[in-house]
Amino acid sequence: MNHKIFSSVFVCLLFAALIASPALAEKDYRAESFNVWVDVQPDGSLLVTETLTFQFVGDPFTFVFREIPREKTDALEIVDVSMDGVPFQPGTGAGQVEVENGDPVKITWHFAPTSGTHEFGLTYRVRGVILHEGADTLYWDAIPFTHEYAIDQSLIRVSYPSELTPVSTPTLEGTTGSLETGTGMFSFTIPALEPDAGASVFVQFPLGSLVSQAPAWQMEQTQRRAWTAQAAPFGLGAGILMVLLSLGGVFRLAKGFQRERTNQIPFSSSFASPPDKTAPALVARLTGKGTAFLGTLFDLGQRGVLSIQEQPKKWGTRQFEIVRQPNRDLLKPHEQVFMDKLFQKAKDDRVALSTMSTLAYQSEFAETVDEELTAAGWRDAERVQKRNRLVLLLGVGLVAGGGGFVLGLLMEPALSSVQGKIIELMLIGAGLGIFGTMLLSLIWALTISTLTPEGERQAAAWNSFQTHLQQVTRRHVPATPDLFERYLPYAAGFGMATEWGKSFQKMENLPLPTWFEGLQGSLDDGSFAAIFAVISAADTSASSGSDGGGGGGGAGGGSSGAG
Predict the structure, then answer these.
(1) Tens of pLDDT along 498-516?
(2) Which pLDDT tens digit goes with each residue over 331-348?
(3) Residue 78 maps to which CATH number?
(4) Model-level pTM?
(5) What DSSP element (H or E) covers 250?
(6) Are 74 and 154 found together in one domain?
(7) Which domain holds residue 374?
């Protein structure tokens, strides 16, 4: 009996151990403490000693790293690196330290796989961090603001020559802590810090008490600001000059597009019906609105060239197919291209309604519509070519202006005189002037009409008709059921097929289009749901494309971690 109990207990313990072992194997770590001693030397340099105690849990760890930025320093020198009190020598093997002298300086402790609690020490000397800002100012990021681990507690201690007295009360930024002061020192005791939570210390001493002059990087920054102030008028002047020259060139080119304006619009009031029998696709291109090929779809449906048939639902979504009918109706050139492109990959005379979206990327259809507009005397082919050349020229100017701006920015690090700063700001100013002028001019160029005067009159008439259709959809003017199918091709061409369908969706006695075939039972309730689904699906397919035309802050900080 005892043997059975022992076996059961053993099995349970073994099972628990197997369950617990993956969790125990997960790597995790935290800092039990992160202590920093900043010793201000008589020459104004800082001797910084960091002591970081890590607790490693789970899988063994093999390295710890610390990154210290060189920004806002004149020099940074690594003095000592240790682990558990044992000094590390340079190298990349276990028990060695790897120092990468870039910006930031990266220090990596390499050690044999280990877990448990270990102490890592780092001492380095940094120069050029005492600023001249009306006083000798120390602003030091003691605890880095980038670390993925939590810190249980931290002590920051700052010592300085005992004969000096701060002219400001030491402050702690980034977190809270208790301040303790004494002769030649002060310290902050900080409670727990979350990951990526750091701390900075700020204190000021009498001007000239620690350093006789500002750090080299600060003097260079001040010098560059002075150069910038001297060079700014040259940069501004270059920018204004380029704007004026660019505008002059654009205005000169714009004269080529001027022509006498005419107010001879062939109507005295808004159109409540189509002005003529122009095909919906041509109307869409003429007015620059909507989707030409969608208007063609419903137009060909009305004429019996196509039909749309509902298919069984797939994944809960209604499916539709476009079916080619044996119709002998004479097709216009753009309609023939429409049919050829729509059915070019069809094995029979039917394709999915979603295939419509591919027509958005068929330039041949749009080109054919444009040719018909040109043949009708509504599109000015020469004016199109002139506008295309203008757009290309403005695009080149846009790139040139942007290039000048970027070149000026790239020059900045290499500058060493006011003359260099003048060149930099002149490039930046000229580049911005050209870029801004070219961008605005390009926007204007794209709005230039490529229609003939007669084409503009036709467009005005059709725009008036579109306004009427919009009034119908908003129920500002009365509508009758017969209007739905009659004007659907034009509404679709104007890009308002869905709105058009919604406005008739709840109308009684609405005759359904002859080109639509619903599934048995889908229209038994007399609802408009199926045909509206067709319009929405077609509109969605068409919409996938278009056939229309040095400052504040302190030194130090960086990041830290382990792995």
Answers:
(1) 888 888 877 777 777 888 8
(2) 999 999 989 888 888 878
(3) 2.60.40.1730
(4) 0.63
(5) helix 216-254
(6) yes
(7) 289-380+451-542
